[in-house]
Amino acid sequence: MNIYAISDLHLCISGAKPMEIFGDGWSNYLEKIKEDWNSKVNDDDIVLVAGDISWAMKLEEAILDLKYFEELKGTKILIRGNHDYWWQSISNVRAALPKNVYALQNDAIKFGKYVICGTRGWTVPDSSFEDAQDEKIYKREYLRLDMALSSAKRLCEDGDEIICMLHYPPFNHNKEYSDYIGLMQKYDAKICVFGHIHSHIGNYKLYENLYNLNLYLTSCDLCQNKLIKIS
């Protein structure tokens, strides 16, 4: 079993909001993702999709986008991104998913020796919060990440590995230690997959090891619309 990851597909199969307007790197990107995906992934492999899945505003509008995953090999695990407005009731989302597609929301799922957990996360401030609403959301997402990692820990047996999925990076652009990193250390997660970052990487890298964590940035436009192998 191999684990791969990608994020920020911003699907809009209907064509109402084409990603090509954001630059040449988005030209035919879904075809490129599909070709690379199906050339790498076997039926028993897992692909993590770390948020910003569809531009849809309502679940019924996202159905066509979710069907895109039917054409892709392996088991797919999704988390919500900041643009996934269609993702409201988790029970309704799960009921609408195609076969072999799973949605995580503050919880965890186990496949073999891998226990995968996830939540959206939020922007980590540079020093202090300038906006009270940002601080409120950050603290709420901290509690949700705690729930997800706690759920993962309960599923773990000897030799299992916890993989944590976030949409937002677990640190700011200065890569400073954060409460989110502290939680992953507390629960002995060694791998964190995230997205959200586009176009200008700045201090962010597609892979680095910091704070005893293997960190993978998986935004599809930054990884040339190719899956990143995690394990």
Tell me about this structure.
With 231 residues, this protein is an alpha/beta fold. The protein has a single domain (3-229), classed as Metallo-dependent phosphatases (Purple Acid Phosphatase, chain A, domain 2, 4-Layer Sandwich). The protein is 26% helix and 19% strand. The protein contains five helices and eleven strands. It has a six-stranded mixed sheet. Strand 1, helix 1 (29-40) and strand 2 form a beta-alpha-beta unit. It is globular, with a radius of gyration of 17 Å. The model has no long low-confidence stretch (mean pLDDT 93).
Indicate the topology.
Layout: E1 3-6, H1 29-40, E2 46-49, H2 59-66, E3 75-78, H3 90-96, E4 101-103, E5 107-111, E6 114-118, H4 132-155, E7 161-165, H5 179-186, E8 191-194, E9 207-210, E10 213-217, E11 228-229
Parallel strand pairs: 1-2, 2-3, 3-4, 6-7, 7-8, 8-10
Antiparallel strand pairs: 1-11, 5-6, 9-10
Helix pairs in contact: 4-5
The profile of the biggest β sheet is: 6 strands, mixed
In CATH terms, the superfamily is Metallo-dependent phosphatases
Q: Classify the secondary structure makeup into a structural class.
A: alpha/beta
* Order of helical and strand elements: EHEHEHEEEHEHEEEE
Strand order of the largest sheet: 5-6-7-8-10-9
Radius of gyration, Cα only, in angstroms? 17 Å
CATH topology: Purple Acid Phosphatase, chain A, domain 2
CATH architectural group: 4-Layer Sandwich
Q: Helix share of residues?
A: 25-40%
Q: How far apart, in Å, are the first and last alpha carbons?
A: 9 Å
